[in-house]
Amino acid sequence: MTDEGCLRIPVVWSADCLRHEPAGEVWLGGREPSTEVPERASVILRSLQSAGAPILAPDAHDEAALLAVHRPELVRHLATIWSDWQAGGYLSDYGRDRVVPYVFPTSAMLAGLPVRPPAATHGRVGMFCYDTMTLVGPGSWEAVCAAADSASTAARLVAAGQRAVYALCRPPGHHAGPASYGGSCYLNNAAIAAQALRQAGAARVAVVDIDAHHGNGTQAIFYGRADVFYGSVHVDPGAGWFPHYMGFADERGMGAGQGANRNLPLAPGSSDAPWLAAVSELCAEVRAHRADAIVLSLGVDAAATDPESPLLVTAEGYRAAGELIGQLGPVVVVQEGGYDLASLGEYVLAALTGIDAGRGYREG
Questions:
Q1: Segment 305-341, tens digit of pLDDT
Q2: 77, 175, 213, 234: which one is catalytic?
């Protein structure tokens, strides 16, 4: 923060991020209200505007930025599935106002047979979406692109010399893998930013993920690479938390990426002390990785007031984490989770204030 109390970290933001309206989620077979709502972004934006942060519009993306971390089939699916859904009569004939999968080609189902693209649109959705919570609607693709644009623009600014830039991305992205989406995530904004930093000249990049849930998509994208370290502090999936199947401590990377992946799962109910100890441990590994630039997957759903996780981190804890991460070097901050609208802006501002205090932002 400056002496006048203004947040100097630039905020990259597009109002198109508000166009995604999931209108609920299907959880345990029933449609329930969504927590990943447009107001999440509005609350954060108002908080940062009140703190005096400069607001910048993103540049339009080059599709190559998406294809650098995602398979073409996934990008094409997300770009076209809503129009295909409408053309198939799912809205007009069946009253299905959002795209939702109902059958999934799991390895158990296929029993060794190859995946054959289904003729039916409603059958095809499960090839890419791995849960029933992540719905697609009429403005979803535009919002997904705006979030990706914000992340890639923030990476460009950091590569050009800014010490810290915050991308207000919505929908979030760290659960989206090379050819899959889920967990309210469609394209992986943090991975897009990390790859953009690499292509701009950073020899090594580290993604530090402090969302309450493991970023299985980011891990999957970089799991076999040594040039991008991925580290995550999150609630233990072994205690029954999303994404359930990955995020365990023994997942250390494979091939060239062996040792460049680190998961630090925490017990439900963990508060500032164990959480910050884990963040500090990740920061030590980032230094050992000799990262030239950092991508922070900033989920604030570890907040004590958040309904989506059992962690009990305070705003002061997030500020302290921001300071630790800000000391590591140039950082692109990408918004992930955080669902308590009453405290969301406070927690994001606390993290960015910490980054500022940790010299994560410097003029020039």
A1: 999 999 999 999 999 999 999 999 999 999 999 999 9
A2: 175
How many residues would you count in the chain? 364
* Rounded Cα gap, residues 86 and 96, in angstroms: 9
pLDDT tens string 244-288: 999 999 999 999 999 999 999 999 999 999 999 999 999 999 999
Q: Rounded to the nearest 5°, which phi and psi values hold at 207?
A: -100, 120
User: Residue 173 is encoded by which pair of tokens?
Assistant: 């992205």
> What is the residue extent of each domain of the chain?
11-61+147-357
What is the phi/psi pair of residue 332, to 5°?
-95, 120
Q: Say if residues 158 and 293 touch (Cβ distance below 8 Å).
A: yes
The tokens describing 97, both together, are 């106002």
Write the CA distances from 82 to 33, 100, 135, 200, 300, integer angstroms: 20, 10, 10, 34, 30
Q: CA 105 to CA 256: how far, in whole Å?
A: 29
Whose structure tokens read 């500032």? 272
CATH class of this structure's domain 11-61+147-357: alpha beta
Q: Is the Cβ–Cβ distance between 152 and 193 less than 8 Å?
A: yes
Q: Is the peptide bond before 243 cis (omega within 30 degrees of 0)?
A: yes
Q: Who contacts 3 (Cβ-Cβ below 8 Å, separation ≥6)?
A: none
Tokens representing 250 are 């023994």
Assigned token pair, 83: 């129009």
3-state secondary structure labels for all residues of 245-277? CCCCCCCCCCHHHCCCEEEEEECCCCEHHHHHH
CA atoms within 13 A on the CB side of 305: 12
Note if 175 is an active site residue. yes
pLDDT band at 2 (very low <50, low <70, confident <90, very high): very low
SS3 58: coil
In this prediction the pTM is 0.96
Share of the chain above pLDDT 90, in %: 96
Distance separating alpha carbons of residues 239 and 82, to the nearest angstrom: 35
Q: Which helix (H) or strand (E) holds 298?
A: strand 293-298
Q: Residue 229: which of 286, 281, 303, 179 has the closest Cα?
A: 286
Query: 3-state DSSP call for residue 313?
Result: strand
